[in-house]
Design a protein that fits this description.
globular, single chain, five-stranded mixed β-sheet, about 25% strand
Amino acid sequence: MSDIKIKITDREGVSHEIDAPTDMNMNLMEVVRSYELAPEGTIGICGGMAMCASCQCYIKSEHELPEKSDDEEAMLAEAFYVKDNSRLGCQIHMSEDLDGLEVALAPAEP
């Protein structure tokens, strides 16, 4: 059982330093939901299948992340507010090498 520290800036600009478990096979979107850092029904709408962009976030730290899948690339191509550092939170699984990760949640879709 090991937790990592990650920093998540919510959609109101408030920064939260939280403990994320690495032993529960959770992804970033699930961590955001479990800490209620976004209003219910505004994040993870598709359940983590890379079929919506409600969990889009901006990676602010220099962590090495897995390559984007074709599904993630396709979804980001259709999303709003996409930046060079955009990723889908549902595609980032918590692991010990992500200790210190810093992200900001992208604005909710218009």
